[in-house]
Design brief:
Elements: E1 11-12, H1 22-25, H2 37-48, E2 69-71, H3 81-94, E3 116-117, H4 120-127, E4 135-139, E5 142-148, E6 154-160, H5 167-182, E7 191-197, E8 200-206, H6 213-217, E9 224-225, H7 227-246, E10 252-253, E11 262-264, E12 270-272, E13 279-280, E14 291-292, E15 296-298, H8 304-309, E16 311-312, H9 314-330, H10 346-355, H11 371-387, H12 398-436
Parallel strand pairs: 1-9, 3-7
Antiparallel strand pairs: 2-15, 4-5, 5-6, 6-8, 7-8, 10-13, 11-12, 14-16
Helix pairs in contact: 2-5, 7-9, 7-12, 9-11, 11-12
Length: 437
């Protein structure tokens, strides 16, 4: 992982995205609730009565990871925010019609996402009685099965362990249901419904077939994600989080942005998953700048100011996104306990290298060390440094992160094209010289 990559090594290129500009992404008409508000309200009302358990992940667990989920740990208790919040609040009020944030993938699904409270018979039929052959993942709170609904829709069925039922897990289950039922964006995992039956607690979501970002950074799927693909993924995630933060006058804070919660499609589009820790943010119009809450999240990604003060804002997601950016360009996990002491906290190590003018040494050795990659690396680490600012007031908004990443991708593509033209000219010149000889 940490030596130069052979140019002949397999590398995964991301297909071209449907072109749209940052300004259109964040236009006044860029976000919306779904038109079926009656169905949404019915699901939300039913969800509030659910007493159950939250299943922690949509996908196979992040095995061997040095990161540990934190939930209500005793050890963890305990631009300006106001101006950013006020600005975001006014932007959210203007968002009233469907745009890119409500765009569907190419899909033949007949079932409207989030519109169903499933029966136990439907779940058993979809998973063939929770057949072990349909199992696709195992987490701390339960098991994930692949399923097929009667209309042919492929889904992921998250089934809770009966042995881990308790009150706070029931709250997380309800939180996930409420959040999933009201959001819809092409870079968020779609929610199809849930089941409450006796002691069964099940969430049914979109099946995303290509594994997690962390798996691809670890090369579990054999292919190496090139930097262009990683930059596209960063932009997808930035769009998803921006949508959550700007969705209503009460923005949604995800609280668990990490590579194992980023799922990839066959075309390497990123989808953010796992809303069990999601919280509604403070209403900025009331003058409140944060929500006071017990700390939840994953070690290595947690905002240190949130850890210290219990004050949760959208900027806590921005911090986690900064860690994710470092993870994307280095290929390393946020915490690597087997490395020497100064390299164990990847973000801290990478930021030190960057500020010392040695950013190139942080690049994932599987990636080519060419001019385009070096340019993008410098700019991505510069953005990460802003996201990882110790004080939330000094961090950019997620909207600003997305805009900067768009600019980085534009420059990256221009330099890459220039490099290809130069290489082509060089080969052409050598061929002419050989013929003349």
């Amino acid at each position: 992982m940490y030596g130069g990559r052979n140019p002949s090594s397999a590398s995964r290129n991301t297909p071209e995205r449907v072109p749209y500009s940052p300004s259109s992404v964040y236009s006044d008409a860029s976000t919306a609730r779904t038109s079926s508000s009656g169905g949404r309200k019915a699901v939300s009302a039913a969800a509030r009565s659910v007493a159950g358990v939250f299943v922690s992940c949509f996908t196979p667990p992040d095995t061997g990871s040095s990161t540990k989920s934190l939930a209500d740990s005793d050890e963890s208790k305990a631009h300006s925010v106001a101006s950013d919040g006020s600005r975001a609040g006014s932007e959210r009020r203007r968002n009233s019609s469907r745009g890119v944030y409500a765009t569907q993938n190419n899909s033949t699904h007949a079932r409207e996402p989030g519109s169903v409270k499933f029966s136990i018979e439907e779940i058993l039929k979809a998973t063939r009685n929770f057949s072990p052959s349909f199992k696709i993942g195992q987490g701390g709170f339960g098991t994930v099965f692949k399923g097929r609904l009667e209309d042919g829709t492929l889904v992921a069925v998250k089934r809770a362990k009966k042995s881990v039922y308790d009150k706070h897990l029931g709250v997380e289950f309800q939180s996930e249901i409420r959040t999933l039922a009201q959001v819809e964006h092409l870079n968020l995992v779609k929610f199809y419904g849930y089941l409450e039956y006796g002691d069964e607690r099940v969430v049914v979501v979109e099946f995303v077939p290509n594994g997690t970002l962390r798996e691809h950074l670890d090369c579990i799927h054999s292919n190496i994600l090139d930097l262009a693909a990683r930059l596209d993924i960063a932009i997808d995630v930035a769009h998803a989080i921006t949508y959550l933060h700007m969705y209503t006058d009460h923005p949604i804070i995800h609280r668990d942005i990490k590579s194992s919660n980023i799922l990839l499609t066959e075309n390497f589009r990123a989808k953010v998953a796992d809303f069990g820790f999601a919280r509604l943010a403070a209403d900025s119009d009331s003058g409140v700048t944060h929500v006071s809450t017990q700390v939840k999240g994953t070690a290595g990604y947690l905002d240190p100011e949130y850890l210290r003060t219990y004050q949760l804002t959208e900027k806590s997601d921005v911090y986690s996104f900064g860690v994710l950016l470092v993870e994307l360009v280095t290929g390393r996990r946020p915490i690597e306990p087997k490395r020497e002491l100064k390299e164990r906290i990847t973000a801290k190590w990478a930021m030190k290298k960057f500020t010392d003018g040695d950013a190139v040494s942080t690049l994932d050795p599987r990636l080519e060390c060419d001019s385009a990659n070096n340019l993008a690396l410098e700019k991505i680490l510069e953005l990460a440094l802003q996201c990882l600012a110790p004080r939330r007031q000094n961090r950019p908004t997620m909207r600003r992160c997305a805009e900067i990443l768009w600019s980085i991708r534009k420059d990256y593509r221009e330099v890459s094209s220039s490099d290809i033209r130069s290489l082509s000219s060089s080969f052409s010149g050598r061929s002419t010289s050989i013929r003349e000889q």
